[in-house]
Amino acid sequence: MFFKRLSLPTRIGMSVALVMALLAAYYMTRFVRDGSQGTVTSLDAYVGGGLTEVRSGLTGQVRRIVDDGEQVRKGDLLLEVASENAALAKQEAEAKLRETLPRLNPVALKILEGYFTLPEDYSVLKARLETALTAAEKASDRVTALSLAHSKSQLAARKLELKEKKSTADKELLVKLQAEDYRLATALELAREEQEMVNNHRAGLEASLRTRALLEQSAAALNDQQKQLLANAYNIFLRLSRAENDLAGSRKFAPADATVVKANFKPGEQVQADRVALLLVPENEDAFWLIATFSADDAEFVVPGAKCRIRFDDGKGVKMSGRVKERIYPDDDLLLPEEAASTALAGGALRQGSGAVEDDPHFKIHLNIDDQEALLYLQNRPDAIVTIIKGSEAKSFIDAVKNS
After folding, report:
1. CB-based contact 295:389 (threshold 8 Å)
2. Which structural domains are found in the chain, ordered by start?
3. pLDDT of residue 95 exceeding 50
C-alpha cells in the first residue's frame, strides 16, 4: 500500500535504484566469491598492429623531413630526398632513345612495343604460370572438399528432420547441423569465387605466354644489327623507367592523418633506398593491441571492460595496463574445423604458445599507451603475459547502465 501511495516518478526512481543495487550485488558477490583468486592469467599473449613505416624511395641526401611529435594530415609532404642522380639518369636515357629509336625498322619497333605490353620475359611468365596452375589445383581441391562436407552436413540434418520423435539432444544437434550447413554453404560459395579468380588469372598468363612466344620468334627472325638495336632500346627503356620511379620516390606523403613518433634522419643526412625514415601512428586508432589466449575455464572472467595488468617476457621489466576490448576467437568463422588453428587475425596469426591449444579463447586487449617510448618499445613486438582482474568490469558496466 505504501508503494502505491508514492508518485509515479518516485516509484520509477526506486525501481531503477533497486535494479542497480541488484546488479552491483551480483558483481560484488562474484568478486567476493573469487576473492581468494582475484585474477586470471593468460596462457599466451603477443603484440598486434604496428606503427606505419615511411621508407625512402631512393638513395640520396635528405632535403626535408618532418620532426618527432609533429601532427600531419593526409597528403602532407613528409620526406623529400635529393634526386639529382635520378634526374640525370632520366635525361641520359631520353637522349639515348632519341638516338636509337629512328634506327629500328617497323618490325623491331612493333616487337619493342610488345615487350612493354608484356615486360616479363618468357621464362618468368612460364614460372608464374606453373605457380598459377598449382594454385588452381588447390582451389579445385578445396571446392571439392567443401562440396563433400556440405553434402554430408545436409544429409545428416535431413535425416534428423525426418525423425518423428526428437529428443532434446536431437533438437540441439539439429540446430548445430543447420548452423554448420550455413557456414559450409557460405564457405563453398567463397571458395568457388576464389576458384574462378584463380582460373581467370591462369588463363591470362597462358595468353600472355603465347603472345610472348610470338614476340620471341619475331625477334629471332631479325638480322643481327636489328637484334642488337632492339636489345639496346629495351635496356634504355628499362633505365628510363627506373629513373622515373626514383624521381617519383623522392617525395613521400602522409597516407592518413597521423602523429610522427620518430624521424630516423635529419635534413642534410644521407639515406639509403628503402630505409625506414619515419614511424607514424594513425590518428584516432590503436597503433598496438594484444591478442591474449586464456583457458576455457578462465574465459568467463575475460569480459569487455575488464582491467588488465601486462608484463613482457624480454627481461626489461616493462609493465603496462589495459582493458579487454572484445573476444575474437572462436567465433562464427567460415573455416573448416581442421583449418581453425591457422586462422589469420588482424595484426598477426593465431598462435598457440606455452600451454595454449587451438580451441582456447582469444581476446583483443586495448593498451593504455602514454608516451612515444612505449610505442617504440612495442614496435619490437615482445611476448607478453596478461593478468585480468576479476570483476573489474563491474563499475564500468553499472556506469553504462546509469548513463543509458
Report:
1. no
2. 31-50+287-403 (2.40.30.170), 52-82+250-281 (2.40.50.100), 86-232 (1.10.287)
3. yes
